[in-house]
Amino acid sequence: MKGMMLGMLAETNIHSGAGRSEGFVDLPVAREAVTGYPVIAGSSLKGALRDTARESGLDESICKSIFGTEDRAGDILVSDARLLLLPVRSLTGPYKWITCPHILERLSRDLKLCGLSDGFEVVSVKKGEAIWSGDHLFLEEREFRRVDGMDEKLKPVRAALEKMILHQKTASRLDKQLVIISDDDFQWFASYGLPVAARNRLDENKKSKNLWYEESLAPDTLMYAMVFERRDGALERLKSMFQDNPYLQLGGNETVGMGWFAVKILEKGEGR
Amino acid sequence: MSAEDNMINFTIGPVQGFIGQARRTRDLWSGSFLLSYLSGCAMAEIRRIGGSIIVPDVEEDCLLRWIEKKGDGTPPRIGTLPNRFRASAEDPAVAARSAAERVRGAWKEIADCVWRRYVEDVADIGKSTQEIWRRQVDSFWEIHWTIGAMEGMEARKNWRFYRDWADGRPTIEGGDHCTIMSDWQEISGYVRATDGMKQEAFWRKFCKNTGGMDLRSDERLCAIALIKRMFPSVSKDAIGWDVNADTWPSTLYVAAIPWFRSVIASNRDVANSYAEKARSFAKHIQRKGVAEQIFKKSDPFLEIDANFYYSTPLKDSKRTPLDGTTEKGDEPEDVRERRQELENYLDELYRRNGRPSPFYAMLLMDGDSMGRLIRERGEAVSRALAAFAKGVDGVVRQNLGVLVYAGGDDVLAMLPVECAMSCAHKLSVKFTRSFKDYGMDATISAGLVFASYRVPLRSVIREAHVILDDIAKDENGRGSIAVSVLKGSGRYCRWVSSWSGAVSSETNEVLLERLARVFREKEENASGSSSSPSSTTSSQATFKEKHASSSFFYKSRELLLMLSGEQQWRPGMFFDLSSLEGLDIGELMLAEYLNALEHRSEITEEVRATARRYVGDLLSVSRRNPGPEYGRDGGEICADGMLLVKFLSQKEVSE
Amino acid sequence: MRYLILTPVDSWFFRDGRPFHKGEATSDVGGFFPPSAFTVAGAIRAHLARSMGWREDRRERRWSDEICRVLGDGYDLKGLRFRGPLLCRESDHGLEILFPAPLNLYGKKGDRGYEMRLLRPGAEVECDLGRVRLPSAEGIDGMKPLSGYITGDQLKQVLRGEVPEGRVIPAEELWSSEYAVGLARDLETRTAKEAHLYSINRIRLERGVHLLMGVEGIEDMLKELDGAVMPLGGEGRMASVAITTLVEDIYGFRPELRSENGTVRFTLLHITPAFLSRWPGPGDAIPGVPGRVVSACIERAMRIGGWDSANRRPVDLKPFIPPGSVWFCEADDDRLEDVRRLSRVGEYTEFGFGEVAVGVW
After folding, report:
1. Does the CB of C176 have a partner CB in chain A at under 8 Å?
2. What are phi and psi of C113, to 5 degrees?
3. How close, in Å, is residue A7 to chain C by CA atoms?
4. What is the rounded distance in angstroms from the CA atom of residue B573 to the CA atom of residue B65?
């Protein structure tokens, strides 16, 4: 089946809820069971694509054939939107975009599935170390040692990532901001490094009625998803949707201006 | 010939497959009672032909006496006989076979009563309804028995094979499946995808025959689930006495019991007129007899559908229909106005008495290593168990709970949140004492689930079994209590401890409940009395204080996590901090605690001393407190103790 | 036989038999894993059918005659044969197949790791099945059947009648289930419709864990599968496919079966679920198997059904003997060769059901 990839850069906070909370945060973001990485379920993403399609004026019968109905599968299959780059505060300069070998390995595999490239070589990195273009590095309050001599190996990774970001200017920041740390270190940031906001609902007497903690993905989080077609032409239709307006709204809290992604479409070749 | 050669070990199953697959509390009760009743029939048969029951001690059992038609006084409505027992008879194989026959006969009698009263008349518009019914009724039970030592019964359980399968194997279940017991076909016999109209017509007619209250519009049941659901209405014909269980308190009702007491004590008239109003808007909501069982008295307010005590379900027109609400939940203007009127009225009650908790507790308890004890001490165990069983209902009642089942060494009860842990503890003390009186050391373990009414009942029951068997008994050891909090959104925390670690050695109080009281009082002091109208300033104080304790708990977990080096936290996770030498976790947490108080002036010695005591108690419930067979030291620590305190201390918890 | 390595693109969703209708609140659906052979074989055949021009259309549910000639139709598989699905995981020495732990393997976690015992037929006990040698062993007090998976080497030990070395791999180390709430949003109000709330359990595999499905009879079509992405299970979840030939497999491994006084004793261990038209009791014969049953460790039936998309109706839920179940049998020793050759029992074996391993007791 032919596939394409959507690079999704968060332009606002994103809250794609798990519908399930464990522990302190009342409304955590959805996470993958095995890795603990934040994720947007394929079904939510598909729903958002369908909403966008409707709003872009796509004919209802075409919508139905692309996205399916109760008794008929749609012409497309939508993967989860998975995490690629996580923005993390740094004491030394602007925020950093962190990722890890496991995530890059997945990206490399997924690029191949979509027939986009033969992937790239995934670098390895030890706990407490960081591959990046600068020298000393603090992420939140944790310190990382720079691994020397990795510039050449970083290039193809950066090139692959650049293609997934809609705005050229944003993509150019990868040079200075991309950091690869070990899977273990990354997992910590992915689990605990997300913004948690205390939100409060007041009743008619301005008394606190409900206080809850809500977790979200920060702006500039980069995610990606894959879409495969069961029937020729479905991907073309989907692509045309984003031509004039390359944005997608996803997750809850639409009313408070959350959930906007800038979408970059990557497509080529014949996958199967 | 040894005495063992006369021994019968008898078991009826599947226990979880029959009891656990429940949607309403009435299903849960009904399943427990029926299983107990059938087991009693087997016992009665063995006694009838001259045998005797060795374990449990049934001499004074009320249920068995009624089965044997020797009952007097109030007929039993709680199952008291366990599904497994040990008996002796002169010709044990003959007696066992005869007992199994009697069980099948009694079951068939009950099934026939339900069939005749409710199904027969509908069957002709179903598709092979009678065939499905018979197939399911005939092949459901797994009755097995062995002669001789108890090990034989353990071995027998390895081979799930039964002689009464009509086709020599478990049944093939076609069509659509039961919405409660998913392995079984629903009895209309139609498939919704192709014969949806006929399926609907069948169940509509069925509902009409039962008066409409017994089945929800989206419930399509198999014979087994239907028998459980309808049994209370046919009990007089089926077993010879009325079990009076048409109205069994729902989970929401149990959750609200402490609130009822406060409402009736202070605002009885307002409450009763609310109930009258609700009843005039929705005639079907009367629940006669519920209050009588729990409060031993009745008020109109206490006898309506529990959805009418809670604003969220009351707002949901599909879930809580009034007269004039359509099946889909649509309402004409005037009905919507009436609903609004009820909501306003309820808000007024909330202003006077606060809100009822949306959480209730499901308590499951089971004696530890009973098999071994029975092998070693035999009849003494029976007598100790009988002594224990006698007082269970009383203890549950004292703690405002409702007993579902108490037989042998098992207890199943539903309780309001605030009394549940002490109730479990009191039962455990009673259990150990009963055995001590007969010169034995024995413990009982507990699985306690605090669940939101939004969590499906079967998930709650499953969780109770898992935490009792795996988390308490297996992982933590004998004499343990495991507690889970299930919100609508998932598992909030899971905590486990031995009884000795859970209870203050000086005052015999459950430590977590004591801590919860302390934190709740703090919250209340900050916000002032809940009945007084609140000004903006006090609401800010509430916010701050709530925020303070939340942030202390939150930060403590982060601290533990950071120290442990773990990457991810999951409910029930223990951290091993033993490798961190020279670390005083108590001092660290104390600093966090004082920090979270957001004090403006100097911290006095007195404040510091109190804080030290709280933090000390918190730490002690956070450590691993294993049962006697595990010698692990206290190096392990969990965050869930604190979470549970937070849960118990909050007046209003998100569902 | 070639093997397809199936890896979830992200997660998978496999339903149990519970009804799941849009417009009705449903909770806790799915989480059934590993999926049944019907599900996996169905996904592979659908993918191949698509490559032959079939369109999943309202009008065109049925396959063309040409497709049916190659892929069969419904329960008829023509020349196709499957094995599995089995779980496997990457290890230092390549792909390692995992097998369900036998139900007669009892154990407990002690201070020094696992202590394990294998049950075998014990002394006769009089019970509701008659006088039967029920499975037992010395020193199993406090032990439970160990559910989980074992490696090929451990399986060989079990088949030789030895307690396996090491430990049983619990399912939690191979996959996790992921709870998610789905909701149908009302287009007008953008709010969730209460009755349309449903919660489901998706399956997410640990890194390096895959499903393995053997396939035979479509050699010339394998290129359509290698590197492909195809839908598998519910919710439009996908699998990516790679093709491999197994280097090392216990398929066909037979321990030395001894005969004593003219009788050979053997065990049959179910590797995949099996459908038997009659379940044998003590002294009965297993259909297609020489000799008779002495004893057994058999779990409650697992009911396997599915959805018949051609006829838009649920497939009957049939009772299958769960993997891990063990028969202890006896046969006359002139049937030794027949016993040695056993590899499948029951029905639907061409889909992968009914795979058994032969051992001694």
Report:
1. yes
2. 80, -150
3. 16
4. 48
Q: How many CB atoms lie within 10 A of CB A260?
A: 19
Residues A186-207 pLDDT 10s: 998 998 888 877 766 665 555 5
With CB atoms and an 8 Å threshold, state whether A79 touches C181: no
| Chain C CB within 8 Å of residue B1 CB | no
pLDDT at A29: 83
Kindly report the nearest CA distance between residue A32 and chain C, in angstroms.
7
Structure tokens at B167: 């086709």
- A82, closest residue in chain C (CA to CA): C10
- The pTM (predicted TM-score) of the whole model is 0.91
Residue of A139, A52, A17, B112 whose CA lies nearest to C197: A17
| Crossing angle of the two packed helices B25-48 and B223-239, in degrees rounded to 10 | 50
Count of beta carbons in the 10 Å neighbourhood of residue C65:
8
- Which candidate, B531, B500, B493, places its Cα nearest to that of B630? B500
Q: Say yes or no: A183 contacts chain C, CB-CB below 8 A.
A: no
Question: What's the CA gap between B46 and B68, in Å, rounded?
Answer: 11
**Shortest alpha-carbon distance between residue C222 and chain A (Å):** 12
User: Which DSSP state fits B207?
Assistant: H
Indicate yes or no: CB of B152 within 8 angstroms of CB of C21.
Answer: no
User: Looking at beta carbons, which pairs linking B614-620 to residues 24 or more positions away fall under 8 Å?
Assistant: B614/B515, B614/B518, B615/B586, B615/B589, B615/B590, B616/B586, B617/B511, B617/B514, B617/B515, B618/B515, B618/B589, B618/B642, B618/B645, B619/B585, B619/B586, B619/B589, B620/B501, B620/B511
* Cross-strand pairs, C96: C89
Calpha distance A228→A2 (Å, rounded): 6
Segment B242-254 shows an average pLDDT of 88
Q: How far apart are CA A174 and CA A159, in angstroms?
A: 9
Q: Which residues 6+ apart lie within 8 Å of C110 measured at CB?
A: none
Of B161, B173, B220, the CB nearest to C279: B161
Q: How far apart are the first and last CA of chain C?
A: 30
- What lies within 8 Å, CB to CB, of B54 at 6+ separation is B7, B85, B86, B87, B88, B378, B379, B382
Dihedral sign for Cα B165, B169, B172, B177, please. Answer: positive
C262 CA: distance to closest CA in chain B (Å): 27
Q: Looking at the partner chain, which of A43, A68, A79 has a beta carbon nearest the beta carbon of C238?
A: A79
> What amino acid occupies position A55?
E
CA distance B342 to B344: 5
Token pair of B234 as six digits = 């046919």
C98-125 per-position pLDDT tens digit: 999 999 999 987 666 789 999 999 999 9
Per-residue model confidence (pLDDT) at position B160: 95
Min CA distance, B596 vs chain A (Å)? 16
User: Nearest chain B Cα to A37, which residue?
Assistant: B568
3-state secondary structure of B193: helix
Give the burial class of A243: count Cβ atoms within 10 A of its Cβ; 0-12 exposed, 13-18 middle, 19 or more buried: exposed
| Residues in chain C closer than 8 A to A33 (CB atoms) | 11, 176-178, 202, 204
Does residue A27 have a pLDDT over 70?
yes
Average pLDDT over residues C87-99: 93
Check CB contact under 8 Å for B639 and A210.
Answer: no
Cα separation, B287 vs B249, in Å, equals: 9
pLDDT at residue C32 above 90?
no
Q: What sections of chain A are H helices per DSSP?
A: 42-55, 60-67, 101-113, 151-162, 168-172, 174-177, 183-192, 234-244
- Which chain A residues are Cβ-neighbours of C236 within 8 angstroms? 42-43, 46, 68, 73-74, 77-78
